Amino acid sequence: SSEDEAPEEVTFGAAREAAEAERKLEGEAAQRHRELLKEKRRRRQELFIEQKRRKLLPEAVLQELSAAPPAGYQPQPLLCSSTAQCVCCSVTTLQGFTSLYLTRPKGNYTALRLKDQSVTALHQQLAKDFINTQLYGPDSNRAQANEFFSLANKKDPVKKAAVQFVDKSWG
């Protein structure tokens, strides 16, 4: 029967040539795949650049903006903690300040002045303090859970109860 027959005998040279041919075909296929990926990446990059070009302002508008300084611009001195660390003491000493204000940032960023940011944080803190005093002030009969409950007591090397009574005589 055909199942009992020994496998076909192949010489070493023929087997080596077949393996080399198979390895060569696999290498060529991998090379074609890499080139295809490179081409796709290049096309995607070109499309992205073209989309960016369409989004940009027309060249005439850009030229007009770069020629004129920003409207209502008044130089303000920078705030420095010490004069030794301050390299430049005013915005006007920076060369090419118009390009600083007219270049588009990469990504979706919003510019905020630190003064505005601190005012916002101050308002938030004042609101939290107001709510805290209204809810847990001296005239209210409320107390925050943190006054009674402490996970630190559970995590200390000397374990204690997490809940503690304000009046020590209670237990």
Automatic annotation (TrEMBL):
- InterPro entries noted in UniProt: NOL7_C (IPR012579)
Renumbered residue ranges of the record's region Disordered: 1-31
**A GO-annotated cellular component:** nucleolus
Annotated GO molecular function terms are: RNA binding
Q: Where do transmembrane segments lie in this chain?
A: none
In the UniProt record, the signal sequence range is none
| Annotated Basic and acidic residues bias | 17-31
**Domain named U3 small nucleolar RNA-associated protein NOL7 C-terminal: residues:** 109-171
Source species, domain of life = Eukaryota
Q: What is this protein called?
A: NOL7 protein
